[in-house]
Amino acid sequence: MEFTPVIGLEVHAQLKTKTKIFCSCSTAFGAPPNTHTCPVCLGMPGVLPVLNKKVVDYTIKMALATNCTVQPESRFARKNYFYPDLPKGYQISQYELPIATGGYLDIETGGQTQRIGITRIHMEEDAGKLIHDPDRPISRVDLNRTGTPLMEIVSEPDIRSPEVAGEYLRQLRTILRYLDISDGNMEEGSFRCDANVSIMPLGSTTFGTRTEVKNLNSFKHVEKALYYEIARQKELLLDGGQVVQETRLWQPDKGQTVSMRGKEDAHDYRYFPDPDLLPLVIDDAWIERMRSDMPELPAQRKARYISDYELPSADATVLTGSRELSDYFEACLSAFDQPKTVANWIMGDLLGLLNAKGLDIDQSPVSPDDLAGLLKLLGDDVISGKIAKTVFETMAETGKSAKVIVEEKGLVQVSDTSAIDPIVDAIIADHPDEVGRYRGGQKKLMGFFVGQVMKATKGKANPKVVNEILRNKLG
Asked: What's the predicted TM-score (pTM) here?
């Protein structure tokens, strides 16, 4: 019996504000435990929360970027549950009246485009963090994170494979980073995901019982956990069992999900409007201010690269994978206007170098202007392609410009036929067998002769001139 997976994702993105959502405590990561707290975020009696306007600004931008409708009025609610890292005994969130609804993202996987609906986007405060002692039965609580502003993005159950789920998450994270409203750092917990998973018989439209999978802190773990959970539910149903609605924990070291607790429904949290916070009213002027302040988004940039620069879709996808990489590409292009050449060098040599060194694009040892300078020398036939690779490596090691390196090492390409002619003559004389075979029809040997000339000239000979001389002399 075949089954179809049904996946919906709940993404929590920590917003890039300096202070918390309802107080002025710092949101900086890594401070000593319980030092970024105050009576408001600790829920002391008599305190009143005050909404951080920047949190609303950022959420409106994300709503616009994901084709959501920003609601003219939304409300904060209290989500009631008791846990040691929740000092108030409730979390301020949004429930019946979220700030944005009814959006979507178009995802490309396997050459096909799929639209993933977005049910809602809402704002809420984060809880604290429990730290479990590995040696003793003790847990400590750090409330620095309590009150940190979160944006929750809830998808429709439109996802049908782990690969699409992974791509959806990557696109969401890229948009957040383009907007500069979240750093999207999964390791620090500023981009977190919970997955709701069920399966239904192939051809059915009735969803099965879902489980919620938590502790998904990387794209790889999300896909692996979804594969495991889908397979687990299939095996369970085929053996005549029943899927139980529950929350499960992904254990990456064991490659499996394990049961945590029964899955709560909304009524279990006893939501009610927060009496300390007024309804949030957003007018058209506020929305338009946020729209005018938005950068070009990755999908728009990709379409422009394809139409204006005539880049292949695959190239445009890589180059728009991060705002920093796109900015690097465009900065280089402004100094050397050959899009495909620039794209090839960035995707090949530059990204290869950065990956090998474990660096991000904004840490590149070769600046856009310096890369453009190298490509100008190559385009003007001052250096050969082989020499350009060597020069690039030296640029990365020394920080020097291509022009300086070429002058210091005497790497200027030789295009003078009077200098190349005798070298070609000597190589032809030294390889009579290859000459005979070439003239007998084995034209692929041209590469052999070119290679010999380049070796003899230490890569300095102009390959175009070398090819022309060889063709004339070999006939």
From this structure: 0.85
Can you tell me the distance from the alpha carbon of 18 to that of 27, in angstroms, rounded to the nearest whole number?
6
Radius of gyration of the chain (CA): 30
**DSSP bridge pairs for 107:** 114
> What domains, with CATH codes, occur in the chain?
3-288 (no CATH), 296-409 (no CATH), 417-474 (1.10.10.410)
Q: Output the CA angle 160-166-170, nearest 5 degrees.
A: 135
Residue 249 confidence (pLDDT): 93
Strand partners, 193: 11, 216
- The residue among 148, 150, 234 whose CA lies nearest residue 194 is 150
- 3 state DSSP class of 153: strand
Can you list the alpha helix ranges (DSSP code H) found in 293-416?
A: 298-308, 313-319, 323-335, 339-345, 351-357, 368-379, 385-398, 402-409
Amino acid 404: pLDDT:
94
Helix, strand, or coil here: 263?
coil
Q: Has residue 179 got a pLDDT over 70? A: yes
